[in-house]
């Protein structure tokens, strides 16, 4: 097993309303020293949901993504608020963004976003047994809600307006998990 580097120093070098940039000085086992900068998670984490309407169809959202200056398809997601569990946050975000709640929520896995430069992870949650319920959210404009078929992930991932890697990964993971549990999917 490789020995982790020794942290020689850490300091905040920039901070905004959303982001904290930390400089971290490390010494590796071969005595090389290196300075990294990373975005540090200041909150309580985030959740991303694969919300299944039935055995094949899941809910998608379309919203403006300032980072790439485009409207993009994705799946519901959001920050975990203080004193919320992963599943409570998932159900709240689902209600705010889609107008559905879930009777059955299951934490599936955590995905790192860019582990070389960020401390952030997003928790993937499977939502099933959906029912209509809308909560007011903090989105700047209404989110467009649509559906897609879990059997058509390859075609979906080739659409220009669906490029979010963490959403693609979450969908493939959930599709394969559901298939392993005996639900028949045609993995196209």
From TrEMBL:
> Which cofactors are required for activity?
Mg(2+)
Q: Which GO terms describe its molecular function?
A: ADP-sugar diphosphatase activity
State whether keyword Hydrolase applies. yes
Write down a Pfam family by its short name. Answer: NUDIX
**One of the record's GO cellular component terms:** cytosol
Q: Where is the Nudix hydrolase domain?
A: 26-172
Q: Identify the InterPro entries for this entry.
A: NUDIX_hydrolase-like_dom_sf, NUDIX_hydrolase_CS, NUDIX_hydrolase_dom
Record keywords = Hydrolase
Q: Does the record's keyword annotation contain Magnesium?
A: no
One GO BP? ribose phosphate metabolic process
- NCBIfam families documented for this protein: PRK11762.1
This chain belongs to the protein called ADP compounds hydrolase NudE
Query: Organism classification, top ranks?
Result: Bacteria, Pseudomonadati, Pseudomonadota, Gammaproteobacteria, Pseudomonadales
């Amino acid at each position: 097993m490789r020995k982790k580097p020794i942290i020689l120093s850490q300091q905040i070098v920039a901070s905004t309303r959303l982001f904290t940039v930390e400089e971290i000085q490390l010494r590796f086992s071969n005595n090389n020293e290196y300075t990294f900068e990373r975005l540090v998670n200041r909150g309580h984490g985030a959740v991303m949901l694969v919300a299944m309407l039935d055995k094949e169809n899941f809910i998608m959202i379309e919203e403006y993504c300032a980072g790439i200056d485009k409207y993009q398809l994705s799946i519901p997601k959001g920050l975990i608020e203080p004193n919320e569990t992963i599943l409570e946050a998932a159900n709240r975000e689902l209600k705010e963004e889609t107008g559905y709640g879930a009777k059955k929520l299951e934490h599936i896995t955590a995905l790192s976003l860019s582990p070389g430069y960020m401390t952030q992870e997003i928790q993937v949650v499977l939502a099933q047994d959906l029912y209509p319920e809308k909560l007011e959210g903090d989105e700047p404009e209404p989110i467009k809600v649509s559906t897609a078929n879990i059997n058509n992930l390859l075609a979906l991932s080739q659409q220009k307006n669906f490029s979010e890697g963490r959403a693609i990964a979450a969908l493939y993971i959930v599709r394969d998990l559901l298939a392993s549990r005996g639900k028949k999917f045609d993995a196209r």
